[in-house]
Design a protein that fits this description.
Jelly Rolls, globular, 5-stranded antiparallel β-sheet
C-alpha cells in the first residue's frame, strides 16, 4: 500500500479463527502493520530485532512483556525495546497496530 492516510475501521476484518495482518506502511526505517486477532487466538513468546509499539484499536486481550501481563483494551499503547520477549492472547476479537522502527 502506498497511501498517506488510512480508514482503519474499513480495514479491520476478523477471521473465523487465527490472525489476519495487513502491512500498511513499509519503509527503510519503519513498518506499520494492522493485526486482527479472532477471539482465542494467540501469538507465542517471540522477540523482534526492532523497537516497537502496539496501539490497541479495539477488543480485549492480554499482552505479556518481560513476563508482566498488560491488559489490551482500546487506546492502550505498549512500548517494546528490541529483543524483549513478548506474547499475546485475544480474549475477544482484537485489533491493533504494530509499529516497528530502527
Amino acid at each position: 500500500m502506498n497511501e498517506n492516510n488510512f480508514d482503519l475501521a474499513k480495514l479491520i476484518e476478523y477471521p473465523k479463527s487465527g490472525i489476519f495482518s495487513k502491512v500498511l506502511v513499509k519503509t527503510k526505517n519503519r513498518d506499520v502493520t494492522l493485526f486482527c486477532m479472532s477471539k482465542g487466538s494467540e501469538l507465542s513468546e517471540h522477540t523482534s530485532t526492532k523497537e516497537g509499539f502496539v496501539l490497541v484499536i479495539e477488543g480485549e486481550g492480554v499482552f505479556t512483556l518481560k513476563r508482566k501481563k498488560i491488559k489490551m483494551k482500546k487506546n492502550v499503547l505498549i512500548h517494546m525495546n528490541k529483543n524483549e520477549i513478548h506474547s499475546l492472547k485475544a480474549l475477544k476479537n482484537t485489533s491493533f497496530l504494530l509499529i516497528l522502527t530502527d
